Amino acid sequence: MTETALTLKSSSLNAPQRSRHLAQASDTLFDLIVVGGGITGTGVALDAAMRGLKVILVEANDLANGTSRWSSKLAHGGLRYLATGQVDIAYESAVERRYLLTKIAPHLTCSTPFLLPLDSTTSPLAGLLGWAGAQAGNALRVASHTSRHILPSPSRISAKTALALAPCLDADNLRGADMYWDGQLVDDARLVLAVARTAAAFGARIVTRARVLSMTENRVQLHDELGGHNLELRGRTVINATGVWAAHYDPRIIMAPSRGSHVLVKAEALGYPRAVVTSPVPEHFGRYIFAVPQADGLVMIGLTDVEVKEVDASNPPVPLEDEQFILSVINGSLGVELGDEDIVGRFAGIRPLIRSKDADTCDISRNHVLLDDPGLPLTITGGKLTTYRQMAQDAVDGACRRLGIQRRCHTKDLGLIGAGAKEIINASSPNPWFQRNYGKEAARIEELGRIFPHLAERLVEDLPATGTQMLFGVLHEGALETEDLLARRTRLAVTPEYASQAQELAQEVMDLGRTLLDSA
Fold first, then answer.
1. Minimal CA–CA distance to 411: which of 422, 395, 426?
2. How far out from the chain centre does Cα 94 lie?
3. Where on the phi/psi map is residue 320: left (φ > 0), alpha (ψ -120 to 50), or beta?
4. Are 287 and 361 in contact, with CB atoms under 8 Å apart?
5. Region of 145 on the Ramachandran plot (φ > 0 left; ψ -120 to 50 alpha; else beta)
6. Averaged over 119-123, what is the pLDDT?
């Protein structure tokens, strides 16, 4: 298929679609087999499908099952990397942030103010360095051609203004704050889903619950986790995009996985902040703990950077010492004292860092790595969520070189499923929560609510998620189990109390969705 012959197909992912694609897979010679259904793998599948390649993506569990759903939900411009001298990755982050905010996923991203409080604990030198960092971040904004209408220039604000944005700050000792702007994601798992569904619209086949037993340069041995049988896929080339699991399939990789822990508190406990509060980590230049307000009424506070050896990267635990560290640092900037009783949820993500000599994980480069040796699968790993598109472009460029073809990348200016002008999104639904999570597709959630009114109610009183979102997840977003609904189509699973309240309805929705798909 040539680039000019591309035609859009259905973007829906569901159980019947999975069955069809899996049944046809053994008899098809693919140009590219992508292993891994996180943000990197789905990004690779989209890029390759847009170049007209015949692509299949296989994932052992659900889309966004691993690190891609455990990020800090920021599309950040790489300010931290400037502090460690990694100018190249800082610039790359700023450029990719612009694409996300303006073209790729404006409905799933937004610009957010960050506050660097100036209080009695802030020395003149620390204040000067903080302001210099904000200005350096602004220089990155300018260099990446990001309009100040999207990310305003930094400013020094009064204590009164800072408290209006973040009432939780220590009013008695606050003399002002430095404010700068960066990008924020509504939901990292939802970004992965949007990328995967857009890839499907361009012809990529997406198959979850298909665990890879082994891979070579042009073959993949699979186990169908639902059907219980093994099968072999044939491809002209294979890309290993399994993130923190990459070393399991590629002995060239030496991982230094790092745990980034977060805790969740109700926004009420912090006075409903409208800006991110940053608190410096003592004796660690350039490291901060962030209290990030979420659109669902919670505030996410994190994160740590601790090397780990063996851990379940799908659902890593948050140790008590990580919680205590996070609270101790953020409390240094607050006028309220957060305690264990304020924590309503917690999660951790495992960063797929590549070992470099004996560096601490805090100092290891976040640059991605593409390994392309003859006779072996291509491996793309490292990096971070904000730069997933560039990672995918590099990987597909490598695949095209192997295939002996020249195809240009088109993903810089492609809006994902749901992306569109603000006025179009606003017209699709009066519900801001649907608008932010689905963009132009918000009208489809509203329609499900008209057909099934009892599902239009909130799943949990304190949160905006609804049963119609779950049903949409079964019909169109590849949810195959109730865990998929609770953990990734909504984010209720990170708050055990909320997940238990919604468990029964999640099963009802799953059964309803299966019935509707069977009768279609």
1. 395
2. 16
3. alpha
4. no
5. left
6. 85
Helix or strand run (H / E) with residue 266: strand 258-266
Write down the residue that tokens 């209290």 correspond to: 291
Kindly calculate the radius of gyration of the chain based on its CA atoms and give it in whole angstroms: 22
Split at pLDDT 50, 70, 90, the class of 287 is: confident
- In what side-by-side order are the strands of the sheet with 219-224? 29-30, 230-235, 219-224, 210-215
Burial (CB count within 10 angstroms: exposed 0-12, middle 13-18, buried 19+), residue 396: buried
pLDDT-above-70 percentage for the chain: 96
Eight-class DSSP state of 88 = H
Residue 213, Cβ neighbours under 10 Å: how many?
Answer: 10
Give the integer Cα–Cα distance in Å for 261 and 322. 7
Dist CA 169 CA 497 (whole Å):
28
Band of residue 99 on the pLDDT scale cut at 50, 70, 90: very high
Q: Three-state DSSP class for 284?
A: coil
Q: What pLDDT digit, counting tens, does each position of 432-471 carry?
A: 999 999 999 999 999 999 999 999 999 998 899 999 999 9
CA 193 centroid distance within chain: 10
183/434 Cα distance (integer angstroms)? 20
pTM above 0.85, yes or no: yes
Q: In this predicted model, what pLDDT tens digit does every residue of 297-335 receive, in sequence order? A: 999 999 999 988 877 889 999 999 999 999 999 999 999
Distance, in Å, from the CA atom of 360 to the CA atom of 142, rounded to the nearest integer, reads 32
Distance CA(39)–CA(47), nearest Å, equals: 12
SS3 181: strand
User: Which two structure tokens, joined as six digits, stand for 3?
Assistant: 């680039």
For residue 116, give the 3-state DSSP assignment.
strand
Please list, in sequence order, all residues whose beta carbon lies within 8 angstroms of the beta carbon of residue 257, skipping any fewer than 6 positions away. 244, 307, 308, 311, 313, 350, 351, 352, 353
Q: Strand, helix or coil at 31?
A: coil
* Interval 124-151: pLDDT, tens: 888 888 899 899 999 999 999 999 999 9
Return the structure tokens found at 76.
């950040």
Distance CA 400, CA 100 (A): 25
Structure tokens at 253: 């990789």
> For residue 286, how far is the Cα from the chain centroid?
23
CA atoms within 13 A on the CB side of 392: 34
Local structure of 23: helix, strand or coil: helix
Phi and psi, residue 172, nearest 5°: -70, -25
Determine the Cα–Cα distance for residues 229 and 251; give it in Å rounded to an integer.
27
